[in-house]
Amino acid sequence: MYSVREFSETDMDKLYRSKDDRMIAGVCGGLGKNTDIDSNLIRILFIVLAFCSVGIMVLIYLCAWILIPEEGDAKSEVIDAEYRIKE
């Protein structure tokens, strides 16, 4: 018999931009919720790395702003499909 491992929300948390914990776009707030790290520490790390990397982190932040969906956004809802292998 074949079995397909099903992933639940606890197996892999989805990354969203935070609506509540935001300064600019909610990227650091979403990362903080996803990793259980204080979002202020992530913000400070982003700022320090932005100065050290000559602005590369600003580009990464802008890309994350575009690519990471906002929390509760209707477009970000994923339809879960279940695949079964018939014998």
Brief summary:
The protein has 87 residues and is mainly α.
Describe this protein's structure.
The chain has 87 residues and is an all-alpha fold. It has a domain at 27-70. Helices cover 40% and strands 0% of the residues. The protein is globular and about 35 Å long. Mean pLDDT is 76; it is low at 6-11 and 76-83.
Write down how many β-strands occur, each being a DSSP E stretch of 2 or more residues: 0
Question: Which class do the helix and strand fractions yield?
Answer: mainly alpha
Order of helices and strands: HHH
Regions with pLDDT < 50 over 5+ consecutive residues?
Answer: 6-11, 76-83
Summarize the amount of helix as a percent range.
40-55%
Given the C-alpha coordinates, what overall shape results? globular
Q: DSSP strand (E) fraction?
A: under 5%
Distance between the termini: 8 Å
Helical segment count = 3
Mean pLDDT: 76
Main beta-sheet annotation:
none
> What radius of gyration results from the CA coordinates?
17 Å
